[in-house]
Specification:
Structural class: mainly beta
Oligomer: single chain
Low-confidence stretches: 1-27
Strand content: over 45%
Shape: globular
Mean pLDDT: 92
Distance between the termini: 29 Å
Number of helices: 3
Strand order of the largest sheet: 1-2-28-27-26
Number of strands: 28
Length: 381
C-alpha cells in the first residue's frame, strides 16, 4: 500500500541566475514539497546509515539498501513505495562478498557489482556470483594492492565490456581514471590533476604525533548519457569526462549566493588529542559545501544542492559539534550546464546525502520516526 504523508505544499519563486562567462537569464521557477512513506509491512528497515550503502536502479524503479552489518539487501519498490523483498548476501564462501565489502552499484542489466580492494565481483539479485571482473588482474599496477582504492566503477551503457574506474592513490591523495576493456583485458590510465587544488582544504590528522588519517573535501561522480561528471564539494565547478571523445572539460561558476569556492582554509595538520579537530570540522561545516549533480531526463536539466550548516554548543559522542540546522540552496542548470536558477530553499533545514531525480521530481531520503520516507521536491509548471 502507498502511504502519503503531507509535509508541505509551498510555492517558491526562484530568482534568475547568471552563469559565469556565459550569461543568460531564466523564468521564475515554482516548487512544491511533500513527503511519501515507504510501507515495509512488519519488517524493520536498516536506516542507521541513512541509505549511504544503497544504489538506485538504472530505470529508477527501485532502490537497494544494504545493511553493512548483516549483509541483508532491502529492495524498495519506488513506484509503489513498498519493501518488495530482502536478499541475504553471504560474507564467505563461493558466493561471498567479503566481511567488509559494502559498496556496490546496480549495473545496467540489474546485477550488483560489489567492490573493495582487489575485489570486483558481480552478483545477481538472488545473491549468486555471476562474474568476477578481475580488474585487479587487468590493472595490477593500480588495483593489485591496497595503495590505491576504486572510489567508483562505471559500466558503459553502450558497451558492457568497457568499464571506467575512478580511483584514489592514498599516499599523495591523487586521483585517476582507468578506462578498461574487459574482453581484451587492457586499460589506459589518465591522471586527474584538476583535483590537486583540493589539498588546500585538507587537514592531516595526528594522534600523539603519528599520522592517523585526514579530513578534507569529498568528490562525487555520476554517469549520464555517455559522460562521467565529477565535482569536489569545495569548488563551484564540475568536470566532465566524455566517453566518446576521451576528453576532460570543466565548467565553473562564481555566484552571489555560493561564490566560486569555500573560503575557510583549515590548518595543514591537527593533533587529535588537543580537541582542535572539532573546531576545524565546525568551521568547514559552516562554510559552503557543493553537493552532487543529478540529471532530470524529463526536463533536460541538472540539479545540485549546496549547504551551509549551523551548529550549537552541544558535542556528541564522537567529539563533534551537533548540527542544529542548515541553509540549503538549490541550483538548476540546463543540459549545457548553463546556470538557470539558484536560491535558498527556506523550508529545508537539513540535507540528506542521498537524493536523486525520479518522475520529474527530486527525491531526498528522510527518516520519519524511524521509518523510511522520501521528501519530494516537485517543479510546478
Amino acid at each position: 500500500m502507498r502511504h502519503l504523508f503531507l509535509f508541505a505544499i509551498i510555492p517558491f519563486l526562484f530568482s534568475c541566475g547568471k552563469k559565469a562567462d556565459k550569461g543568460g537569464f531564466s523564468d521564475e521557477i515554482k516548487l512544491s514539497i511533500d513527503t511519501v512513506m515507504v510501507d515495509a509491512g512488519e519488517e524493520f528497515l536498516s536506516l542507521n546509515y541513512d541509505l549511504n550503502f544503497s544504489s538506485l536502479s538504472p530505470d529508477k524503479s527501485y532502490l537497494i539498501n544494504l545493511n553493512p552489518e548483516t549483509h541483508v539487501a532491502e529492495k524498495i519498490d519506488l513506484n509503489n513505495l513498498v519493501l518488495s523483498e530482502k536478499i541475504q548476501f553471504e560474507k564467505e564462501g563461493p558466493n561471498g562478498v567479503g566481511q567488509r565489502t559494502v559498496y556496490f552499484s546496480i549495473l545496467p542489466d540489474d546485477r550488483l557489482l560489489f567492490r573493495n580492494y582487489m575485489f570486483y565481483k558481480v552478483f545477481d539479485q538472488k545473491a549468486q556470483l555471476t562474474e568476477d571482473l578481475e580488474l585487479e588482474k587487468i590493472a595490477p599496477e593500480y588495483l593489485g594492492d591496497s595503495e590505491r582504492y576504486a572510489l567508483q566503477v562505471f559500466q558503459s551503457n553502450d558497451d558492457p565490456n568497457r568499464v571506467i574506474v575512478f580511483g584514489l592513490k592514498w599516499e599523495n591523495y591523487t586521483y585517476f581514471i582507468l578506462d578498461m576493456d574487459l574482453e581484451n583485458r587492457t586499460y589506459t590510465a589518465k591522471d586527474l590533476p584538476v583535483f590537486e587544488k583540493g589539498k588546500e582544504f585538507r587537514t592531516n590528522i595526528l594522534y600523539n604525533g603519528s599520522p592517523a588519517g585526514g579530513y578534507g573535501p569529498s568528490i562525487y561522480s555520476t554517469i549520464e548519457n555517455g559522460k562521467i561528471y565529477f565535482n569536489m564539494n569545495a569548488f563551484n565547478e564540475i568536470h566532465i569526462f566524455d566517453l566518446e571523445s576521451d576528453s576532460l572539460s570543466t565548467e565553473g561558476w562564481d555566484t552571489p549566493l555560493l561564490g566560486a569556492k569555500r573560503t575557510y582554509i583549515p590548518p595543514k595538520e591537527v593533533e587529535m588529542t588537543t580537541g582542535e579537530l572539532k573546531e576545524i570540522t565546525r568551521k568547514a561545516g559552516e562554510d559552503v559545501s557543493y553537493k552532487h549533480f543529478v540529471w532530470d531526463e524529463s526536463k533536460k536539466r541538472f540539479y545540485r544542492f549546496s549547504i551551509k550548516q549551523k551548529f550549537g554548543e552541544e558535542i556528541d559522542e564522537y567529539d563533534e559539534y551537533v548540527a542544529i540546522g542548515a541553509d540549503v540552496f538549490l541550483s538548476v542548470f540546463d543540459e549545457d550546464l548553463n546556470l538557470v536558477s539558484e536560491q535558498l530553499v527556506p523550508e529545508l533545514k537539513e540535507l540528506s546525502n542521498k537524493y536523486f531525480v525520479k518522475d520529474g521530481a527530486i527525491w531526498m531520503y528522510s527518516n520519519v520516526d524511524d521509518e523510511l520516507a522520501f521528501t519530494r521536491i516537485n517543479f510546478v509548471d
